[in-house]
Description:
The protein has about 150 residues and is an all-alpha fold. It is about 90% helix and about 0% strand. The chain has helices at about 10-20, 30-145. The longest helix has about 120 residues, at about 30-145.
Amino acid sequence: xxxxxxxxxxxxxxxxxxxxxxxxxxxxxxxxxxxxxxxxxxxxxxxxxxxxxxxxxxxxxxxxxxxxxxxxxxxxxxxxxxxxxxxxxxxxxxxxxxxxxxxxxxxxxxxxxxxxxxxxxxxxxxxxxxxxxxxxxxxxxxxxxx
Length: 146
């Protein structure tokens, strides 16, 4: 990425002539200073470019490091959030199970009460029927045996 400084000596001599009213030829000793300045500028620009490339590389490395660190932090936070959500879901499931168990116990109680009542009613009806049959049979036997 070296950019050399290319001097246009004709333009320089024309500018000097226009500003100072003095004609400087390309073989004039003053042009030696122009050439030396050109070489110094090229070296300084090269050093600045190398320094800038080092700085850009350092900045890029720092950005990559910061990006990796940020991704790691985001991953940790996402895991924490996932664990928290999973725990909340598990709590809700456990609460739902407990509520379902309570409903089942209530339904069993209600069913067993009605079942007991039903069997008691059947027993009373059967006992009443047996009593009526016993009395009827007793009356019949009493008539037959008379």
